Amino acid sequence: MKSLFSTPVGRLRIISYLEGISLLILLFIAVPLKYLSGSPGLTKLMGPVHGLLFLLFIFNAVSVGVEYKWKFKDTTWKVILACFIPFGTFYIDKKILSKI
Questions:
Q1: 30-to-33, 57, 68, 92 alpha-carbon distances in Å
Q2: N or C: which end of the chain has fewer CB atoms below 10 A?
Q3: Cα 29 from Cα 82, distance rounded (Å)
Q4: Helix (H, G, I), strand (E, B) or coil at 57
Q5: 99 in helix, strand or coil?
Q6: pLDDT the model gives residue 4
Q7: What stretch of H or E contains 32?
C-alpha cells in the first residue's frame, strides 16, 4: 500500500478508488435518502466531497496521461470517462491502471 503513494499512477489509483466510493455513496445512499425520507444531510456532506475528489481525479488523470505519454484517444479519455459511470473507476483500475 505504501508503494502506491510513491508513484503518480499509484496516487491516481487511490484517488480513483475514493472517487468511485464517493459516487456510489452519493447515488445509492445520499440521493435516495434525500428524496425518499426528506433527509438532505448526507447529500449536503457528500456532494462537495465527491466534487473535490472528482476534480482531483480529472487533474491527476490528465497529468499522469501527459507524464506517461498516453495517447488521449487510446487511454486518457477512457480513464476520464470512467469517473462519470458508477463502478467505472474500479473497472479502469483493474483493466488499465493496475497494469502500469
A1: 5, 21, 36, 24
A2: N
A3: 20
A4: helix
A5: helix
A6: 74
A7: helix 31-37
Q: Write down the pTM of the prediction.
A: 0.89
Q: Are 62 and 70 in contact (CB under 8 A)?
A: no
| Neighbour count for residue 49 (Cβ, 10 Å) | 14
| CA 69/CA 65 separation, integer angstroms | 6
Identity of the residue numbered 30: A
CB atoms within 10 A of CB 32: 13
Cα separation, 92 vs 83, in Å, equals 9
C-alpha cell at 86: 458508477
Structure confidence by residue, pLDDT tens digits, 45-81: 999 999 999 999 999 999 999 999 988 888 899 999 9
